[in-house]
C-alpha cells in the first residue's frame, strides 16, 4: 500500500496557476490520468493539472521523459502504464510532478507546448476494459433494497461473509458525456397469470458507484492474497451503473441482473491513482457487535487499518426544464465511500480466490454507495422510498423528489442529466477531485 510521501506535500505549488486555486480539482498533489483526443491527432494519455492536460505523448517526443517511460507514455491507452510495478508507477508520478512543480518554472518554455486546455479535447475511455464486475458492497444499500422486498429478512445469509458481485458488461461502458438511450426490454405481466410485454423502461434509475481499475493482473489458477491486493490496484474513477428497475424486476430471478444493467455504464474520464489517495486512506468499515468476522483469506492488519478510502460523493440532477431556465443542477445525494462493508482489497482478493485471472484494465464496481441517512442514499429507488431499515414498509410507498421547476421525479425522465462528483479532503492535505461522471437520458430508440 502506498504511504504518504513528498508528492503529497500540501505546500507544493505548480507553475500552472489554475492548479493552485483554492478548491482546484487537480492540484499538483493529484495528477490524475485520462485519455483524450484533439481534432487533428490520435488519442493520447494525459495528466490533469488545474484546468489543463499535460499531453504525455508530446512530452515523450520532446525528450522530457526518461527512457523507461517513453514507450508507455506514447500509447493510446493507459493499459501499459497501469501494468507497471507500483515502484515504477511511483517513480513516474515523481517525474511528472517534477515537470509541473513551481521549481520547474525555468523549464516552462519547454513544457508548456505539451499543455492543452480540458475544454479543447474529446475524452475517451482511459483504458481497454476487458472485464467488469460489479459488487454490492454498501450494507446500507443492500439493507434498504432488501427491506423493500423482504422486510422480515433484508440481508441474505451470505452478505456478511463474502463480497457479493456479478459479472457486468464491459462493451457498454462509456465515458462521461455520452448520451444514454432509455432501454427497451421485457416487462412483467400487469396481472397475475398474464403475459409480459415489451416496452421502453419506465423506471429508469442511476446508481452512485466508484470504479476501481486493476493494474497488474494474475495468472489463471493463481490468487491475489489480501496482503498483496493493494499492489494490484491502480486507481479509482466515478461510476454510474444505470439501472432499468422494471426490466430488472422481471428478469433478475434466478440468475441476477442482465439486460436491466447491460445497456450502459458511465465512468468519469479521470483515474485518480492509489498513490494520490494515500493521505485519505482510513480504517475499514466498523462492523457492529455480533457481526461475523471475515474468513482469514479476507483479513489482514493493513486492510483493517487502512483499507478504506475517505472519499466524499455527490449526485446532482438537471432536468431539461431546469437547463432551459438556466437553473443549476440540484443535489440529490451526498454520501461517503467509507460506508462500504467490504474494502476494495477484499473485493479483489475474493474475486481471484477461485483462481480467476484478472487482467490489466479490468474494472471492479463498488455497488451503489449509500449511507444511513435518507439524503445519503445512492439511487432514486432508495431516495424516494418512505421506509427505513428500522421500520420497513412496502416499496410502493414513495415520495417523489421535488425540483425547483415544480417538477417531480420518482425515476428519471427523458432529458434528465445525472452528474456525479467526488473529492477527498482533510485539514492537513490538499483537496483532490475526481472530475465528473455525467450522462443525459435520451428517448428510447425504435422497438
Description:
The chain has twelve helices and 26 strands. The chain has two domains: 6-124, SH3 type barrels (Roll), CATH 2.30.30; 132-442, Fumarylacetoacetase-like, C-terminal domain (Fumarylacetoacetate hydrolase, domain 2). It has helices spanning 56-61, 67-73, 79-82, 86-100, 108-111, 139-149, 245-251, 259-262, 301-306, 320-324, 344-352, 380-383; strands spanning 33-37, 44-49, 52-55, 115-117, 122-124, 132-135, 165-167, 173-175, 180-181, 184-187, 197-200, 204-205, 208-214, 233-240, 243-244, 265-267, 272-273, 281-282, 308-309, 312-318, 330-336, 363-365, 401-402, 408-409, 417-426, 429-442. The model has no long low-confidence stretch (mean pLDDT 95). With 447 residues, the protein is an alpha+beta fold. The protein starts with 32 loop residues before the first strand and ends in a 5-residue tail after the last strand. The chain is 18% helix and 26% strand.
Descriptive terms for the model:
single chain; SH3 type barrels; 8-stranded mixed beta sheet; 12 helices; 26 strands; globular
The CATH C-level name of the largest domain is Alpha Beta
Biggest beta sheet attributes = 8 strands, mixed
Can you say what the CATH homologous superfamily of the largest domain is? Fumarylacetoacetase-like, C-terminal domain
Helix count, DSSP H or I runs of 4 or more residues: 12
Q: What is the β-strand count?
A: 26
Proportion of beta-strand residues: 25-35%
CATH fold label of the largest domain: Fumarylacetoacetate hydrolase, domain 2
Which outline best applies?
A: globular
Distance between the termini: 49 Å
Portion of residues within helices = 10-25%
Mean pLDDT over the residues? 95
Structural class, from helix and strand content?
Answer: alpha+beta
Quickly give the CATH architecture of the largest domain.
Alpha-Beta Complex
Give the radius of gyration. 22 Å
Number of domains: 2
Question: What are the segments in which pLDDT stays under 50 over at least 5 consecutive residues?
Answer: none
Amino acid at each position: 500500500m502506498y504511504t504518504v510521501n513528498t508528492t503529497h506535500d500540501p505546500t507544493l505549488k505548480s507553475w500552472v496557476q489554475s492548479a493552485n486555486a483554492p478548491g482546484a480539482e487537480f492540484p499538483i498533489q493529484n495528477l490524475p490520468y485520462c485519455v483524450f483526443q484533439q481534432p487533428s491527432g490520435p488519442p493520447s494519455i494525459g495528466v490533469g493539472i488545474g484546468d489543463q492536460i499535460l499531453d504525455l505523448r508530446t512530452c515523450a517526443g520532446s525528450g522530457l521523459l526518461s527512457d523507461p517511460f517513453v514507450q508507455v507514455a506514447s500509447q493510446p491507452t493507459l493499459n501499459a502504464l497501469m501494468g507497471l510495478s507500483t515502484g515504477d508507477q511511483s517513480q513516474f508520478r515523481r517525474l511528472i510532478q517534477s515537470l509541473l512543480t513551481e521549481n520547474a518554472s525555468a523549464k516552462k518554455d519547454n513544457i508548456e507546448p505539451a499543455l492543452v486546455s480540458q475544454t479543447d479535447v474529446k475524452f475517451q475511455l482511459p483504458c481497454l476494459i476487458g472485464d467488469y464486475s460489479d459488487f454490492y458492497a454498501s450494507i446500507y444499500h443492500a439493507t434498504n433494497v432488501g427491506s423493500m422486498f423482504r422486510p422480515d429478512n433484508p440481508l441474505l445469509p451470505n452478505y456478511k461473509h463474502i463480497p457479493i458481485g456479478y459479472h457486468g458488461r464491459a462493451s457498454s461502458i462509456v465515458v462521461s458525456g455520452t448520451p444514454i438511450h432509455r432501454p427497451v426490454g421485457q416487462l412483467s405481466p400487469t396481472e397475475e397469470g398474464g403475459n409480459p410485454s415489451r416496452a421502453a423502461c419506465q423506471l429508469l434509475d442511476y446508481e452512485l458507484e466508484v470504479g476501481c481499475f486493476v493494474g497488474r493482473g494474475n495468472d489463471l489458477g493463481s490468487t491475489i492474497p489480501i496482503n498483496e491486493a493493494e499492489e494490484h490496484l491502480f486507481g479509482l474513477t466515478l461510476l454510474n451503473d444505470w439501472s432499468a428497475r422494471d426490466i430488472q424486476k422481471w428478469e433478475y430471478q434466478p440468475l441476477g441482473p442482465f439486460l436491466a444493467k447491460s445497456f450502459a455504464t458511465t465512468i468519469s474520464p479521470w483515474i485518480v491513482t492509489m498513490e494520490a489517495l494515500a493521505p485519505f486512506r482510513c480504517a475499514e468499515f466498523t462492523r457492529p457487535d455480533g457481526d461475523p468476522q471475515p474468513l482469514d483469506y479476507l483479513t489482514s492488519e493493513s486492510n483493517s487499518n487502512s483499507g478504506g478510502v475517505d472519499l466524499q460523493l455527490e449526485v446532482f440532477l438537471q432536468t431539461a426544464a431546469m437547463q432551459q431556465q438556466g437553473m443549476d443542477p440540484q443535489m440529490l445525494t451526498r454520501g461517503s465511500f467509507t460506508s462500504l462493508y467490504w474494502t476494495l482489497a477484499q473485493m479483489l482478493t475474493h474475486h481471484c480466490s477461485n483462481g480467476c485471472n484478472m487482467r490489466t484494465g479490468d474494472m471492479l464496481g463498488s455497488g451503489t454507495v449509500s449511507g444511513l441517512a435518507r439524503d445519503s442514499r445512492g439511487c432514486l429507488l432508495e431516495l424516494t422510498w418512505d421506509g427505513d431499515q428500522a421500520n420497513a414498509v412496502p416499496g410502493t410507498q414513495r415520495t417523489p423528489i421535488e425540483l425547483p421547476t415544480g417538477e417531480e421525479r420518482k425515476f428519471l425522465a427523458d432529458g434528465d442529466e445525472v452528474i456525479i462528483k467526488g473529492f477527498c479532503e482533510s485539514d492537513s492535505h490538499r483537496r483532490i477531485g475526481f472530475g465528473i461522471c455525467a450522462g443525459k437520458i435520451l428517448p428510447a430508440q425504435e422497438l
